[in-house]
Each structure stands twice: as C-alpha cells, then as structure tokens.
Amino acid sequence: METQKFSYDNSIVKAFLYATIAFGLVGFLLGLTAALMLFYPELPEFLFGTDDTTIKSLASGNIQGLINTQGALGFGRIRMLHTSAVIFAFVCNSFFCGAYYSLQRLLKTRMYSDTLSWIHFWTWQIMIISVVITFLMGINTSKEYAEHEWPIDILITISWVVFGINMFGTIAKRRVRHLYVAIWFFIGTWIAVAMLHIFNNLEVPLSFTGWKSYSVYAGAKDALVQWWYGHNAVAFVLTTPVLGLMYYFLPKAADRPVFSYKLSIIHFWSLIFVYLWAGPHHLQYTALPAWAQAVGTGFSIMLIAPSWGGMLNGLLTLRGAWDKVRENPILKFFVVAVTCYGMATFEGPLLATKSLNKIGHYTDWVIGHVHLGALGWNGFMAFGVVYYLIPIMWRTELWSKKLANWHFWLGTLGIIFYAVPMYISGFTQGLMWKQFNPDGTLVWKNWLDTVTAIIPYFKMRFLGGIFYLFGAILMVVNVIKTIRKGSFQKNVPAEAPALANIGSVRKEGEGVHLWLERTPKLLSILAFVTIAIGGLVEIIPTLTLKQSVPTISAVKPYSPLELEGRDLYIREGCNACHSQMIRPFRDEIVRFEGKNGQYSKAGEFIYDRPFLWGSKRTGPDLHREGGRNPDSWHFKHMYNPRITSAGSIMPRFPWLITNTLNRTQMVDKMKLMKNYFDVPYTKSEIDSANQWADNQSKAIVKRIYAEAADVKEQVEKDRAAKGASFVPLEQREIVAMIAYLQRLGTDIKTTQIQTASAD
Question: What would the pLDDT profile of 11-22 be if each residue is shown by its tens digit?
C-alpha cells in the first residue's frame, strides 16, 4: 500500500505546554499563600492596612485598604482559586499537552482539525481567567472543585465538547488499526468528565443577565451528587488522563514496552467501573442514607486492586531499565509519581472505612492524602512530561540535567515536608477532638486548643511548599535555557500507509479486546455503560425516592434576610473552613450542641441549595451555631476574630460591616425558590419580604446595641461624621450574615424530632 505523507502539529502542544508551566507556578503560589494564611492570618492586613497596632503594615495605619479589597485575598477565595488553578489550569493543561502530542503519534495522523485544537486551547484559557476574576470577586457556588458559576460551566462544556470532537475525529482518520491503552484512558476520561460535569452543575440562574444560580439539588441529595462528582473529579481529571500519559510517556522515556498488556486491560475496565461507586465515602456518618455510605465504602476498598494493578504495570515496565533511572531525571520523576499514585490509592480506601473515617474526616489527614496525589502523582508526571517534550520539540539536549535533578530532589523534599506534617496534624486533630475526661467532659473544650496545637505543622507544610515551588522555578529556568539553544519544529514530517477498510465485524479467532481496540465506537459505548452504572444505581434512587430524606415538620424555609446572609457566607468561602454537619458521635454532640443537643438530620437540609456540609474543619462546625453566641459577639468576631477568640487564625471581614446589603434581588430569590423548587413561601411572605427583612434587621441591631455599648457608640460617631451619606447598621451586610448564623440548627429541639410520618 502506498505510503502517505503528513505532519504532526507541535504548535498546539507547545501552547498547552506553556500554559501548564505558567498556571502550575500560579497554582503553587496560591497554595503557598493559603498555607501561609493558616498560621499568619494577618497577611491581608500586612499588605493592605489595619487598625491593629500590634501588626506591621505596608499600607497606612488604617483599615480602609483592607476594606477596599472586599475580601479578594480572603482565605476562602484563595483556597478555591488554588484548587481550581491546580485541577483545571495545571493538571488539565498538562493532560491536553500530552494528549495532543501522543494522540497524533499513536494514531499516525495529524489532529482532526487545527482550528478545533486552537478553539479548545483558547476557550479553556479564557475559562481559567474567568475563574480567577469571578472567584476574586466572590462569585462562586461553594461546591468543591465545581465552584464556577453557570456561565463558566457552559464554557467548560463547550471547550470539552470541542476537544472530544477533535479527539474522536482524529481517531476516525487514524492510520493505526488498534487503539493503544493510553487512548482507552483518554476516551474514558472524556466520557466520564462530560457526564459528571453536566449532572453536578445543573443549576437554575437567578437571571440570565447575572451570575447567581442555585443548585437543582438540595441538602442530602445535593451532597450525594456533589461528592459523586467531587470524588470522580479526582478519578477522571486527576487520575485516568494522567494514567493515559503514564502509559505513553513512561515506556517512551524508558525505551521499554509496557509490562503487561493483559494487566492494562484489567486496569482500565475495572478502574472506570469501580471508581463511580466510591463517591459516598466522603460522606460517612453524615445525613446521607446509610446504604449509600456502605456502597461507597465497599467499592472504595475494591479500588485498591485496579489502582495497584496500574501502579505495578507502570513500575514493572522499568524492569531491566533501572540503571536508566539513575541517570535520567525524567524517569526519576515518573518513578516517584507512580509510587505516590500507589500510596495515595492505598490510603484513600483506608480512609473510606468507617473506623478510620471517623478519625480522619474533617482533619488535615485528608489534606495530606490529597496533596500526596496532587504534588507527587500529578505534579511529578507533569514535570516528567515537560522534561521529555522540551528537548524533542526544540531538537536539542536538555540544558542542564543537574538542574533537573535539583528540581527532582527539591520537589521530593517538598512532598515529604508537606504530607508528613499534615498526617501528624490530622492525627493530632482527630484524637484531640475525641478525648474525654473521666467525668465525661471534653479534655479540649475550647476549639482553639486543637488549632494552636497544629500551628507548627502548618509552618512545616509551608516550608514544604517553598521547596516544591523553588523546584518548579528551577524547571522554568531549565526550560527557557533549553528553548533558547534549540530550534522549534512546528510541523513534524511523518509518513505511514493508509488504514485498509476491513469492516467492524469481529473476525474468526480475533480476541474480544483486540476487536474492541479496532472498533472505537463500540469501545466508547461500552466505556460509557461501564462508567454510568455506578452513578445510576446510587443517585437515581436517592433523587427519586422522597422517603430517602424524611421531612421534619419543624424545619421551615429561610427568611429573606437569612437567605441573603447564606449567599454572603458562600461569597466569602466560609465553607472552606467550617462544616455544617454534626455526626452522631458523642464528642461532636457535646462540643457543638448549643441549645439543641442533636446530631444533624437529613430533613434539616431540605432548603439548602447548595448544601454546605464542608470537607474540612479549620474552625468549628456551625450547624448548631444558632443561639450559642450573642449577636454582638458575631459582629465583633467578623470585624476581628482575635477580639473574641485570642489566637484565632480566622481572617477578618470588616467589609461586611461597612457594605450596604444589596436587596434588589431578594424578592426574586424567594420567587425562584417557590416557583422552581417548591419552597413553601406564601404570596404574602413574598410580597412583604422587605418588611420581613426590616423587622428582623431591627431586632438584631437592637440586641447588638443592648449587648455592646461600644458598638453603638462607634456607629453613632460614624453617623455624625458621614451625615446624609450614613447607612444605618440595619441595612448592612453584617446583619444578614448574623441572621443566617443565628438561624443555623434552631429548627429542631432536643425534646422532640417530629417527622411527617409521625404527624
């Protein structure tokens, strides 16, 4: 057959490679900033100004500069920026970079469409920039790893569909009959992410001219869908696409074939089947139905087998080539990456068991676990791919292997100094929270005791981040120097015979999987079915059966002012540090009971869109916060947490006290809740929403003035100074926030929990 000549497109690979490096540095820097703020919460005051004379500041000696930031550098916003930058900007760009390079060479063809390649690139980068801007402005949904509001969700969908069309179009015009294992993982990734993203981000916009939206799911149902998405974002954004890169770049760098073809088959199909069932393990002991928790645990434990199968397949590929690891920094990165993958995928199932989950959940143990995967598996795989591609694409030797080795050792030290302190911190937290005196009282009654005990580990974690970031900076230097001495080849000439058409019917004696590998449509359909089964079995019963979330007759919808306060809570990212889920443990009920000594019930969350159960307790749980502290305490706590809680690492929120509450959409929010979600607001309640909010605001301010004469005095001074421009305290954001916090957990009483069935 006549050989056909064509060329590979390196320019799109270069674009994604540059984006990977640039956004990697941004993601690491944001992570380092968040880590710093956990033991130096005064960082925003130092940068922008403060009225606290004990803190040095780069700005003038007043707090107006901090107020003017409107919380852009608040921990809650920085944290979600960090996670999105690492997941969507760094890891996804590294995947696209490796995929565009490997797909062309594995399929012996140029990408289906150069135009689609560049549309994909620019829509993805525009999405990332949009995320940065909106998150800094406080525009977010609060749903972990999916905080983007609805216009950005649509942009992600468009970009992902464009990538899919380009990938499947390239597969269709391939010159290689059988699809290599890396491409199986790329296909599985595309299918799963499309399904997860669409179903988790179903939301109703408040208006099509604004950003605000509300999840179509509520409470326990929203939690199940979110962690079905959240866990599988780890699975199909941080794992399967990177496994695809491993199956291509590790054998290439080692110049060895993959250890086992059969193990590759088992690894792929078992992994994509089992992963979708494991999401509920993030919700052990919560208000999620017990059967879903049990299913999540069982399948999480099963995940060890396929995960370790993949790890062993990667490491055993290096049989006979370990001498190269000593000399080749690329292989060093790959070996540690695959090892970290194995460690993280062994630890994850252990944390999914109820015995360890009750100690580890909400602690820094989970943070250490996640970063072992992110820094070790994702980061080191991306670094290895960069070091592999740069010399090839610029047709030169790497400028300095010594510098690459320095990067490797600094990065490895960074992982160790990050993960180990977080493990110790997590064990410390989990055990301190549960420790009782012989008389039945908590040993550590004050939450701050458990916070101050782990500050040294936060500092060690920060040191690990510095090592890791500095290693990445060395990589940038090495890359720039290599590029300068090389010559980039935009179009790489190639040739291969055209693929003969032999039909899609299975041939006699042909293995089933070999047949699947040459029929991409069937392989994709089977992959979709395999992926979808777990989600269908877990989510559909929970969403469709009303009895899965028993109604509690005492639970009422939020007042309009409380609804506004909840949106402010989400805007500031408070759920990054505070959970709203008291599990049925003696220590949690005693510690967080307030006036209502009850663990959290599913029926309490039926009006929560989205749910706010949280995944980390840096601060205490807030589900029974209502009535525990007076209104004036919340006022002062928001202004400066260290006034009410010496040693607190919570950031300040002074802009809440100065900002006027925007009530222009308050009635529209109530109407949306009633019309779309059947929240039982009456017509009279909606019509009198502003009066309802006024009355509640006046009552809160009256209590603040009665409890804190100094606050009243300061407000009166402010009134005298501003004159006609003065905004009454009743009309400010802080009052809505207090209204929301004081509502939390107050619907049910210790003496009686009345459900609909008991009426």
Answer: 999 999 999 999
